[in-house]
Amino acid sequence: EMLRADLCIVGAGISGVACAVTAARLGRQVILIDSAPWVGGQAVGVPIGTIAGLYSAAPPEGSVILSPLFAEEILAQLQERAAAWQMYSRRARTVIVVYDEGELERILEHLLQDAGVTTILGATAFHASREGDRLTAVSLATRFGTLRVEAPYFVDASGDAALTWLAGAACRVAQCPIYGTQIAVLEGVRLSPNDDITAIARRAEDLLRTQAARYGLTRRDSRVFLLPQRQLAVLNATHHPTPLDPVAFWRSVWPARQEAEHAARLLQSEYPEVFGEARLRRLGHPGIRQTRTIVGRYSLTAEDIRHGKRFPDAIARVAWPIELHDTATDYRWEPFSDGHSYTIPFRALQSAELDNVLAIGRCIDADPIALSSARVMGPCIAMGVAAAHAVHLVLQSQASLDRLDMRKLQERLRRNLFDRPQDEQEPSQNVPLKLES
Ligand SMILES: Cc1cc2nc3c(=O)[nH]c(=O)nc-3n(C[C@H](O)[C@H](O)[C@H](O)COP(=O)(O)OP(=O)(O)OC[C@H]3O[C@@H](n4cnc5c(N)ncnc54)[C@H](O)[C@@H]3O)c2cc1C
User: Which InterPro entries does the UniProt record give (predicted)?
Assistant: First the structure.
């Protein structure tokens, strides 16, 4: 079977969904495909636990949303369903949003359906056809047979630069190991919204550190996110390598899944007042942080982000810390000072070799340190929105991505690129703000 669209997006993670819905609302025919049988990618399937990177680095009362486009719709819908818990993280010096992944999945599905996106799940891209500098079609394997999608523009939202790699275009793989995580979700955790959630999370993290060896855990520096309205806990307590080889990948994941079960048992035994009756709801899909990226027209660097670089072709702003998981036992954490942010240039999304392909999300061109900050959900959503507008503009003007009118693109992304005057700012806390110590 053969399908045609204005835009084909490979990867229905948060960046791919943001791109698909935005492009479809602009009147474009969009095909969104994913090898997984759910939408939301890691945000739903792992699940990753919190929406990070949406807000500015500032004291609690001053932290404002940096990238409202599309993200504020998701936040509003999560809040309507009482499925989000907003916190100020003193470690990150910004606001994060803990969410229920089941509700997020439903919200994303509705947004895609309402926008008229043709979404095909369980479809793995296995071949990309190319004519010179242009990608012309992508071939997909599904349980019902193969499918070919032709389009003038493609977006690689696969997290692993899978589309770019299939097209034979240059990619980068980090030279140091960057670990993924097998998350465990516990339900029936004894929590109420009046509890000191921060103190409970801290105590759980302390126990995971001090008792790790007794329970066979490799990682020491674990994170626990609590969703009191749902009596849920998300345990981010393991590290496993994520090689780009199917056999080696799963060999490294199986022991991590066992460790995730041990982490749950540790809390059930060592912290019975809160976790004694908790049950392991699920071990999610193994979480992959950073693997392969495109070679773009610019590679974002650690220096750029530490210096708060403002690019002339900026399409997103980020204030999330450097969070590099490059050791088995813990990770590098480098928060930015209050008021600091940096921008992502459009060129980091543009394939160096393919004229009609943009990358978004975890596989833009960035060095491992820069990517460890830029890959979180806030910037992923902002990149998806930017790519959709860029494709819409070039289809309108029949220009190429290289000749895109950056002024027009930035005008459309104005709310993500510039602060609104103070008196027009909405407070970040649409739900009660809980302070994390
Ligand atoms: C353990 C862990 C914890 C994290 N914690 C946080 C956190 O607390 N807050 C935060 O904001 N971020 C966190 N992150 C980062 C998070 O991964 C990103 O924010 C975001 O989810 C990435 O979105 P994405 O759309 O770029 O990619 P993904 O969500 O990875 O989506 C890519 C999609 O592409 C699909 N795909 C890949 N190859 C193919 C192919 N060949 N054919 C078809 N489909 C394909 C995949 O199935 C997948 O669904 C965490 C990541 C991990 C791994």
Answer: FAD/NAD-bd_sf (IPR036188), HdrA-like (IPR039650)
